[in-house]
Amino acid sequence: MIKNPVHPGLILQEDVLAPLELTVTTAAERLGVSRVALSRVLNGRAGISSELAIRLEKAGAGKAETWVKLQADYDLAIARKTSIRNVHPLAA
């Protein structure tokens, strides 16, 4: 279990956009998404959707499956930190 998960938007920012010296505006234009939508992902306020993952793949930023898995792992780690109550075994 990941104790302190890193949002995949931060990985996208630090490992893809920063080395290419791309601004959010330029990256959004190249990916065909709005600047606001990409900014929300990069700032951890939105997740990487399947559609964005495919756009990243087509733009040469890794495999779509990798981005989707990073997002799912992050979401699961955050969900495990929350207190989920009132769950009982399905089989009595």
UniProtKB/TrEMBL annotation:
Superkingdom of the source? Bacteria
User: Which PROSITE patterns does the UniProt entry name for this protein?
Assistant: HTH_CROC1 (PS50943)
- List the Gene3D superfamilies: lambda repressor-like DNA-binding domains (1.10.260.40)
Kindly state which keywords UniProt assigns to this record, in alphabetical order: DNA-binding
KW Transmembrane (keyword) present: no
Q: Which InterPro entries match?
A: Cro/C1-type_HTH (IPR001387), Lambda_DNA-bd_dom_sf (IPR010982), Toxin_antidote_HigA (IPR013430)
Q: Name one Pfam family in it.
A: HTH_3
GO molecular function terms attached to this record: DNA binding
What range(s) does the HTH cro/C1-type domain occupy?
22-59
PANTHER family per UniProt? ANTITOXIN HIGA-1 (PTHR36924:SF1)
Name the UniProt record assigns to this protein = HigA family addiction module antidote protein
Question: Which organism was this protein described from?
Answer: Dyella telluris
